[in-house]
Amino acid sequence: MHALGADRPPATGVSRGNSLRVLPGFKLTLAFTLFYLSIIVLIPLSGLFAKTLTLDWQQFVSAVSSPRVLASYRLTFGASLIAALVNTVFGLVIAWVLVRYEFFGKKLIDALVDLPFALPTAVAGISLTALLANNGWIGSLLEPYGIALAFNPNGVVIALTFIGLPFVVRTVQPVLEDCEQELEEAAMCLGASPWQTFAHVIFPTIGPALLTGFAMAFARGVGEYGSVIFIAGNMPMVSEITPLIIIGKLEQYDYAGATAVASVLLVASFAMLFVINALQTWQRQRLGASS
């Protein structure tokens, strides 16, 4: 005869169907999450839109669509897009080298990737200007050929590329580390070329991370100010970025006009991030359906 309760499963303190959580209390943690996001994100953004609503429609359109502001949009979004695309390509290459190869000085190069994170943006701007200006180390070599990299849109792209690189590398690097190299070797053994192996085995895995890095680099470029103003030249209609337009309106006590332009940047950046997230979701679903 079995002892009483011998057939019962051992008590675990967790009801069946419930997963063990290190931080118990969904309602408490959710309430804290919403409260923190409201204080840090939602309330400041609500204040931005509330100030913008003090303008009527005609005033709003006039503030956000003057020729000078439109020229700053083209430069800001165009330079951010170019810099993010460049960082997507070369950031992937750098992440690949850091993950797949062992060489002398690897740890130093890995640390240098984070330098734009740690370096104050003003210091980055001054350093790039000293390097690329007509009397700088690189600028002086290019000036005889009529190539100017500072005090024009070229300088803006270079500055945004500098500050955006870590976003791509640090987003793609951990995903590459988790990739199973056995799948690549199997594809090569089955006769796949290196390009086919990358396109059909590696890229579907790192694609969402690559899109995330691109989106983060683009969003950072749109809002960047400190590293750009030193090297851009800040010439109206030529090399003036939108954040500088906002600062100028604030200095003129045109707070509503400044928030109106800032709202355009915010909505555009949010739309870009929404599209990127939608593409990531689609890519993950496609990858899951094909596996």
Offer a concise description of the structure.
This protein is mainly alpha-helical and 291 residues long. The protein contains 13 helices and no strands. The protein is globular and about 65 Å long.
How would you describe the overall organization of this protein?
The chain has 291 residues and is mainly alpha-helical. It has a single domain (54-290), classed as MetI-like (MetI-like fold, Orthogonal Bundle). The protein contains 13 helices and no strands. Helix 6 (121-132) packs parallel to helix 11. The termini are far apart. 29% of the residues are buried. Mean pLDDT is 85; it is low at 1-6 and 11-17.
Number of helix segments? 13
Low-confidence stretches: 1-6, 11-17
Largest sheet: number of strands, sense, barrel closure? none
In angstroms, what separates the terminal alpha carbons?
A: 51 Å
- Envelope shape: globular
Beta-sheet strand percentage?
A: under 5%
By helix and strand content, what is the structural category? Answer: mainly alpha
What Rg, in angstroms, do the CA atoms define? 25 Å
* CATH architect. name: Orthogonal Bundle
Helix-strand string: HHHHHHHHHHHHH
* CATH topology grouping: MetI-like fold
Q: What is the number of domains?
A: 1
Strand tally is 0
User: What is the level 1 CATH name?
Assistant: Mainly Alpha
CATH homologous superfamily (4th level) name: MetI-like
Question: Mean of residue pLDDT?
Answer: 85
Fraction of residues in helices?
Answer: over 70%
